[in-house]
Amino acid sequence: MDHGWASLLAAALAMLLLRATGLALAWRLPPSHPAIAWAAAVSEAALSAWVVLALISPGTWPIAARLAGAAVGVGAFMLMGRRLLPGLAVGLAALWTADLLLR
Amino acid sequence: MHPATRLGATEAFGAHTIAMAATFIAFGVAAREAGFSLGWSLTSSAAIYGMAGQMVLLGAQPGAGTAAVAGAIMANARFMPMAAALAPLVRGPLAPYCVPFVAITPWAAAMRNLPGMPQPDRARWFLGFALTVWTIGLLTTAIGYAVAGTLSAPVLRLLLMVNVLYFALMIAAGLSRGGPWRASLGGAAAVPLALLLPAGIPPAWGLLGAALIGGTAAFLLRRR
Fold this sequence. Notes:
The complex is a heterodimer. By secondary structure, chain A is an all-alpha fold. Helices cover about 80% and strands about 0% of the residues of chain A.
């Protein structure tokens, strides 16, 4: 699949440039510099926006099931001492159960 | 091996890496189903090394290569501010070697752990951690590619939700520790703007817009 390789190599180069540019921009700035604080805020916002979009955009799971899975998973995570794997397992089980109930 | 590098490699074996491995298994399955070779799939995991962009790039079918590349860049554009946020922590001669490994799992672990470490150890710890999870990403991509076709559709659907729940829990963990709640809330609150995009515009543009608007608003509120 030649076209796939061309796209992959172009994207890989772009990813390297994105990362290297970020590092170079911040090379001589202290951690408390406003530009670093802004960059950290944007990256944190990107992560939460990505999660919310993944939860509410059309997809293979009903939105209600995804929201229920996330809510139950986060709740279990907090109640079980912020342990990641139990939180994940409970969240996925809740997602599966909610999907079955919604059918 | 330097003790800090060994410590980073050891600490890489945790719940976050198991969750990340599940997303790479799912990627291997999806890449094979989309018609890409094992070499292409491994190169994607090695050089893109960011699941959102990797999934978008699976759309690089004939006639859609440029759009897929642009979408993948937008989906992973957060790598630039992430690298900028990481840079002061890994400053030194090893910093350039850290560049290819700026991705969610090592970055989140680094932002949590590096501030409490002596400056000379930080880049070494990061490289130990990041090289380990990167290698696991490659291995699990190959596993996913190999088992594609043997997984049932419900199991595959569930695998594709692992990374969403994983990052939701990471955000919840950060917030419960008094983390950057304004930025997390800002990104989430700006999502409706992404949903207002006209039809035909890749969702990745909406993600970038929500991140820039929500993150900048959070930054400005913090500075007041």
